[in-house]
Specification:
239 residues, mainly alpha, membrane
Amino acid sequence: MKWLLIVSALFYLFGSFRRPLFGAGLAAGLAYLALRGVALGRLPLIGPHDTLAFFSAAIGLMALPFLFAPALRDSALFRWGAGCTAALFALLALPFPSFAMPLPPVLRTLWFELHVALAFFAYALFAIGALLGGIFLAGGERRLLDLQYRAALVGYTFFSASMVSGGIWGYYAWGTYWLWTPKELWTSILWLFYSFWLHLRFRGAGGEKALAWAGIAGFAVALFTYLGVSILMKSSHSF
């Protein structure tokens, strides 16, 4: 089934030129996740292979409405950026083995699946916000910052809901809402970062370029929260 990820990545890349091809890349990525889910009897959210494939599909799915926004309808740069980002994570998933082991008891709950899925939807929107900030810095229009704000705001909402569902999952799994693991600490740092950024943006703080750069930095923090912590630090939330 991994060939579907290659097909998805190729369509995403060619989607830089045509929106229907971008949609085909998303369809291939979702088809792969659906087949994995049917084979496993659950959402494929365990291990680097499944999470990277899910992240790729989440980027494609969250980017889709922006492809039709008036400010981006004719922007090949946004299509190229979103397509390359989604393709990158699809290809990164390929070298990792796809696990088919049964879930341990602490993960057999809807709260776990909801927690992880919402987090990746948030990461995807933070990625789109960073891309929009980059296009603005490259000489784009002022309204791109408004789209960046909307992407970050919806992503922040998803991420907040992910933290709540994660706390509920933690209570059922370990009897506590908080364990002080590196993942939880960096999750809090990411949430506080976007809380501060959105507050400044909502208050109409000056320095448009600084806000655009901060939106890009936010995605870097999100990437470290997702990948860096799992690779560099021991945590109950590691792959």
